[in-house]
Amino acid sequence: MLSAISRILETLSMEEGVKMVVLYRIDGVPLCAKLNVPKREIAPTLYWLEGQIKEMLYQISSQNLDEASFKFGKTVIMLYPVSRTTVLGIMADEEASSYKLDIDIKTSCKQLEEIVVGQ
Amino acid sequence: MIESQRIKTGIIGLDEILDGGFIPNTVNVILGSAGAGKTIFSIQYLLKGIEDGNKCIFVSFDMDEKDLVRTTKSLGWNEIEDYISEGKLSVNKFFAENVSYVNNDLLNLLMSESNTKTRIVIDSFTPMISSLNFESRNDVNWFFNKLREIGTAVITIEEPLNGDLGAASISLPLFLGDCVIHLKNIGYGEAFGRTLRVIKHRSSWHAEGVFPYKILNGIGIYVESVDYLKEVKEKIDVNAILEELGISREDVDPKVMERIERVATSASESARKAIIDVLRDSINIK
User: Fold this and answer.
1) Is B33 touching A (CB cutoff 8 A)?
2) Which residues, including other chains, have CB under 8 Å from residue B110's CB and lie 6 or more apart?
3) Beta strand B179-185 pairing with B27-32
4) Which of A13, B20, B23, B29 can pair with B6 through a Cys bridge, CB separation 3.0 to 4.6 Å?
5) What is the ipTM of this complex?
6) Whole-model pTM?
C-alpha cells in the first residue's frame, strides 16, 4: 500500500512546477511525501501546513468544498480531500499549468482514495 | 548489528522497521492511547519469546491471569493457558496503589524469575510513575538499568487523549527508554486509522515515517512495511552512483567507502543524495 501511494505521489511530483506533494492524515501527520526542492527551503511552510490540515479538512467537509488553496508570493498550496482521514497537499509555482495540474491531482486523489479506503 | 543478535518482536512487519528487532538487554517503550493495541503488542512480544524458548514475565496493574487468558483467547491465542501452567509465562498482577518503581517486591519477583534471556512486560508502566516529577529522572533510570540487567523489557505508557506528552510520567520513560514506538489510533477507520512510528532506537538504524497497522484475529498487530522498505532499499546502488559520478572505488578513502556502504543498506529515501554529497566531498578533500 505504501509503495503504491509513493508511486502515485511521485508521478504527481514530476509535473512541471510542482515543488512538493504530501499525503496528510487529518491530524496533520504526513503519511508520505515527495519533495522536489530542498526541505530547508519549504520547511517553515510545511510546519505551518501540518497545523492547518485538521481545520482545513473540517472546513472542506462542512462547506462541501472540492478543494482549498493558499497563495504565498509565487507559490500556491492546494489541499484536496482524499477520504475521511486523508488530504493531499500540493505546493506548486504559480506559473504551473493550473488546468492540467488540477486534472492530474483529481486523478491521483481518486487512485489514492481507492487505496486508502479500500484497504 | 547481526540480525541473530536481535530480539524478534513477534509483530509482523516491525522487525524490518527496527533493523532486525529490539537490541538485547534494553528497555523498549510502547506509547499509545487507550485502544491503540499496547496490550496486544505486549502479548505478541511474549508469545514470540515463548516460541524462541525465552522465559517470559508479564506484570500488570489491571489484568490478572484470568483476564489475560480471556484477552488472548479473544484473539485466537488459545495456547496461553498451557504456557502459564507449564511455567513458560509468569503472570503477575500488582495493585498500583501499593507499588512504586523502587518496589522491592516487583524487583525481587523479576530477578527471581528471570534468566539470561528473559522477556519482561510491564503493562502499563504509567501507574508506577504517575506521581513522579522530572527530579526523579535518576530513579527511573536506575529502575531501567535493573530491567536491562534482567533481560529485554517492553513497557507500555498510556498516552493522554489530549495528546499532551509533557508530563514527567510520560516524557521521562520516553527520554530514558532505548527504543520508543508510538501506536496511534485516530478512530476513523481507513488504512491510516492506525499507524506505528518509531520515535527512537538507540544504537540502531530504524525506518523513518509512519506505517499503517491492523489488529487481526489470530495474528494480532500486523504492520505493513516489508514491500515498501524493500523497494526503497533497492533504489540505492553504490556502484551505479560511482559510475554516474565518474569516480572509481579506489579513488575514495576506504573509511569513507565503508560509511557509504553502510548508508546504502539503510532504507532512507535521502540516502542516495547523501552518498553523492559524501562522495563529492571526499574527492574534493583529496
Assistant:
1) no
2) B57, B59, B120, B146, B147, B150
3) parallel
4) B20
5) 0.76
6) 0.83
